[in-house]
Amino acid sequence: MQSKNNKITALYCRLSRDDGTEGESNSIDNQKKLLTKYAKENGFDNIKCYIDDGYTGTNFNRPGFKNMLADMELDLISSVIVKDSSRLGRNYLEVGKYIEIYFPEHDIRFISVNENIDSATGEDEFSGVRNIMNELYARDISRKVRSSHRLRGSAGEPLSPPPYGYMKSPDSKKKWVIDPEAAETVRLIYRLCIEGNGNETIARILQERKILVPQAYWKSKGLGRGGKKTQPDPYKWCKTTVGKILAQQEYCGDIINFKSYTKSFKNKRRVENPPENRAVFKDVNEPIIDRDTWENVQKLIQGNKRRHTKRDDIPKSIFAGLLYCGDCGSKMWFHFNQSNNVIHYFSCSNYRGDRGTCEATHYIREDALEQIVLIEIRKLAGCLSSNEELFVKMLEDKKYKERVQKRKIVENGLSSAMARLDEVERLYERIYEDNANGKITDDWFFHMSSKYETERAELKRKIPEYRDELNKFNEEDGSKEKFIAAIRRFMEIRELTPVILHELIDRIEVSACERNGNERTQKIVIYYRFIGDISVPEEKPFSLDTRKGVTVGYITEKQTQKSGQKPA
Question: Would you say 272 and 265 are in contact if contact means Cβ atoms under 8 Å apart?
């Protein structure tokens, strides 16, 4: 028997991902041998194999099947031969559509070797039942895989491949170890972000330095990984790749499971899982990025995204993302003077003149701000250098005054919630016994039990929140050392850089200028990371020559309180 008009006899082979995905597995090889033998023995010629190795049968989004379907649309195929109908698919509606509608409409003969089905000899009465059983098998397998997946993920076993920068441990596939070469690139990306570079700029820098993109890097190491493989330039980084690396908490050494899920075993599209439904296991692996740096970067990329200037020759300010309006709390935006582009300044993004609600622009020149911040940090560095004991005491006193009361409130809240939870559970048991003994009616039991259950759920929600707050207080106990270490790094450099700024400063609040005749005063408050606002008093006020022809008087908050003046 020859194919009609020498058309193609399609041999379709498929193997599920659950059975293995490395190359053409033995099962695929066996399918090819079986189908080829059948075709030759039964006189089919012009044979062509279409293979999907590692693809589920619950949907038809498979490259091999799509290629076969394209050839069918071109009227190139006369027959389709499979080992059994489950190889065609495990979605009984779709399989039935192809076998009973699509193939007959296109005059395509369908043969299932093991099931002894041949559309040329008539319809198979049991094909519908068989397709349903194939789908039920896929459903059962999916349920078992999901259950195993949930158990392993809840136990802290990583469910996803290690991200760029890590690799599986040679000793255990369940452990990640640092890949030194890739980890250095990850650290470079975070350093460039801290220095004030956007994702597009970072991508360009990586490309200029001829650093392989993750896919090309894994390929160079002989590692097969999923993802886009069509990038012709192995050094052309994409800003989305940079953004993904900057957002991955795994670089702190954490394992995060259940970040996404599928809605059905038939629909393999991944849906992002809300953060509260994820399982986070901290400090499992050796970190590539320390947690403080990671959290600082998250603040930059999430809450303080920088506005691009409209001209490429105007660099972004090192203060961008740090300035806030002292009155309305909105971010302050970076600008430059259109007629004199050497003048750089910030203004409130919520100013009413720009359709906002803030009453004033809160205008401040970048050069004046830079000198003020530099002076303040130098004063802190000088105090640390001249009298470290006094400096440490000043930090401890400030922390104690601001945190001891808050901590006490949280501790009292936790203690009260735990005591009330015990009491509610005792009350619940009591009304249950009273209802069982006939002391209270069923209606009253249901009313009270519902009330106690609601209160118990609320207490169980609050208790972890209180504990998290206490853990934050405990983590902040080391903030003094972190702040001092950042000051010491500044003492080695003695100039402002984006890295120093973001290591030391959390935010800067700028109040509106107030006029008194020809004088203008403006309050600026610097909030340092870990400790909040703190200042070292100057013996007397002094002036700054911020630019030619302009002198700015400078006075600290404490000097203001003594003299009755308003701070500059």
Answer: no
pLDDT tens digits for 74-102?
A: 999 999 999 988 888 888 788 888 988 89
pLDDT at residue number 344: 87
CB of 54 closer than 8 Å to CB of 23: no
Instruction: Residues 4-149: name the CATH superfamily.
Output: Resolvase, N-terminal catalytic domain (3.40.50.1390)
Report residue 146 as tokens. 């999901």
| Eight-class DSSP state of 300 | I
Q: How far apart are CA 36 and CA 81, in angstroms?
A: 9
Total length of the chain: 568
Query: Cβ(566)–Cβ(523) under 8 Å?
Result: yes
223 with 161: CB under 8 angstroms?
A: no
Is residue 521 within 8 A of residue 533, CB to CB? The reply is: no
| DSSP helix/strand/coil, 198 | coil
Distance CA 560, CA 568 (A): 9
User: Could you tell me which residues come within 8 angstroms of residue 407 by beta carbon, excluding any fewer than 6 positions away?
Assistant: 470, 473
Q: What is the mean pLDDT of the chain?
A: 80
**Averaged pLDDT for residues 309-315:** 55
CATH 1.10.3470 fits 166-303, yes or no: no
Is the separation of the CB atoms in 64 and 272 below 8 Å?
no
Burial profile 511-521: b = 16 or more Cβ within 10 angstroms, e = fewer:
bbbeeeeeeeb
Residue 6: strand pairing partners: none
pLDDT for residue 453 is more than 60: yes
Q: Which are the contacts of 515, defined by CB distance < 8 A and separation ≥ 6?
A: none
Read out DSSP for 254-288?
Answer: -EEE-SEE-S-SS----EEPPGGGSEEETT-S--S
Please give the full DSSP string across 423-490, using - where no structure is assigned: HHHHHHHHHHHHHHTTSS-HHHHHHHHHHHHHHHHHHHHHHHHHHHHHHHHHHHTTHHHHHHHHHHHH
CA distance 83 to 94: 18
Residue 7 has pLDDT above 50, yes or no: yes
Retrieve residue 271's tokens. 């849906």
Q: Report pLDDT digits (tens) over 15-55.
A: 876 554 444 445 788 899 999 999 999 989 899 999 998 88
Contact (Cβ atoms closer than 8 angstroms) between residue 235 and residue 213: yes
The domain segmentation of the chain, as residue ranges, is: 4-149, 166-303, 399-481
In the DSSP assignment, the letter for residue 33 is H
Question: E strands, 17-88, where?
Answer: 47-53, 77-82
pLDDT at 368: 87
Share of the chain above pLDDT 90, in %: 18
